[in-house]
Amino acid sequence: MISLLNKRLRDRTLSAIDLYGKTLSDIENKSNLNAFVHVIRDGDQRAVDSHKRLQNGTQRPLEGIPIAVKDNFCTKGVPTTCASKMLQNFVPTYDATVVERLKAAGAIIIGKTNLDEFAMGSGTVDSIFGPTKNVWRSNPNQWHIAGGSSGGSCVAVASGMCVAALGSDTGGSIRNPASYCGVVGFKPTYGLLSRYGLIPLVNSMDVPGIIAKTVEDVVTVLSVMIGPDENDSTCVDTNLDTNSFQTDFSIDKCRIGIPEEYNCEGLSDEVKETWDFVANLINDFKGTVKKVSMPHTSVSIATYSVLNACEVASNMSRYTGLFYGYRSKNDHKSFDSLITTSRMEALGEVVRSRILSGNFFLLRSNYEKYFMQSLKVRRLISEDFKNIWKSNYDFLVTPTTLTTAPLLSEFKSLDNRTQCATQDYCTQPANMTGCPAITIPVKLSNNKMPISIQIMASNFDDIRLLQFANWLEKKLQFSQIHL
């Protein structure tokens, strides 16, 4: 998609000005999906500048390409709310590093997309702006969830409002909605992309990532954002060369593991059949496919839930209403009263419950029992992955989600904690160990909703992972299916 737009822009069969105008029009016409929370309408000059660069042959890799950004990445002069009343008036004075690099590559940031409040959710339903609706519908009278927490970005791409978008992934927040919306969602290795300017949820697991229609588009966007950042000590210089990405990837020498533990309770028959179909397809093309065991998978979601809440409690302590963010207008007799009331009025139930849970786990009497024990189990989960890579397996292929996108009404009938435990079962282990993971759409279910699969690789083997995903994508040809 991006390569085609680049060609048309260079050939002058499409101008950057017209592309920008069409994008704004599409966003307006599809506003009922509630994908965007803020549309940046002052990009006319940037579109003109891109048009001039294209005319004089000095274009950059993403010249004139409209890209959306999840509303938990700081954007200079543009509101960044995290879909929370706490930050509803927050306007950053700087760009997140990944946003800055997109702009430097010529991309036009078209707007900020909806998410669960502070990225705590798996549906994009817990937002002060209301829920984002999935563009795919099994029944014209009912809406399905977009998935979360990067649901706004995934719907923006799936509906054609933009060709690519930024999301963040802490336990599957890119892969989950990408799966439900039938687009490609990529979570790079932890440390590959800078987290500077990404408002933190869980520092040890948060990863900026990319949503696009095709794997090749993901590679194009990744290539301009990669690289060390002096503002982020967790961002490392790996010398990973995106130019080494090859489209003629050979599968016949690859060993692919199928983890038995991912065939879990709640996995739908259609998702299981799709998983088997992909495994058989790889086998038919001479890839070696074998079942493997990852024994700590069953306790991974509980471990993730404890560590998530602990880091949330720590990160959210900065929102007091004293220096920035929402401040209660009631009369207060003490700082404690001001802080308590401000947080109670500005933070949603899901956020408050995670703060309370995290503080409970971190109590002196509970610290060893919950937090330290979870860290030990996290190490065991990481060892499961390392043992697979040491056994010379190249990739793991698993389901992304256990079912297709639930109806909005069904999803809301269960509490956030239950939903996250179900929706993130297959995705959060990759965040626990830091390895790269990608989800690509495979087929439509019987009720015409997308079904996807997930591929994981060893840490910093992102390019080979993308090559394998691109090979599989070409064989599946899901992009040929139209809404």
UniProtKB/TrEMBL annotation:
One of its GO terms (biological process) is mitochondrial translation. It comes from the Eukaryota. Keywords: ATP-binding, Ligase, Mitochondrion, Nucleotide-binding, Protein biosynthesis. The active site is at 70 (charge relay system), 149 (charge relay system), 173 (acyl-ester intermediate). Residues 27-466 form the Amidase domain. Coiled coil: none annotated. Pfam families: Amidase. Transmembrane segments: none annotated. Gene3D superfamilies: Amidase signature (AS) domain (3.90.1300.10). One of its GO terms (molecular function) is glutaminyl-tRNA synthase (glutamine-hydrolyzing) activity. The keyword Protease does not apply. GO terms for cellular component: glutamyl-tRNA(Gln) amidotransferase complex; mitochondrion. It catalyses: L-glutamyl-tRNA(Gln) + L-glutamine + ATP + H2O = L-glutaminyl-tRNA(Gln) + L-glutamate + ADP + phosphate + H(+). Its EC number is 6.3.5.7. It is an enzyme of class 6 (ligase). It is found in: Mitochondrion. Its main location: mitochondrion. Belongs to the amidase family. GatA subfamily. Allows the formation of correctly charged Gln-tRNA(Gln) through the transamidation of misacylated Glu-tRNA(Gln) in the mitochondria. The reaction takes place in the presence of glutamine and ATP through an activated gamma-phospho-Glu-tRNA(Gln). Subunit of the heterotrimeric GatCAB amidotransferase (AdT) complex, composed of A, B and C subunits. This is Glutamyl-tRNA(Gln) amidotransferase subunit A, mitochondrial.
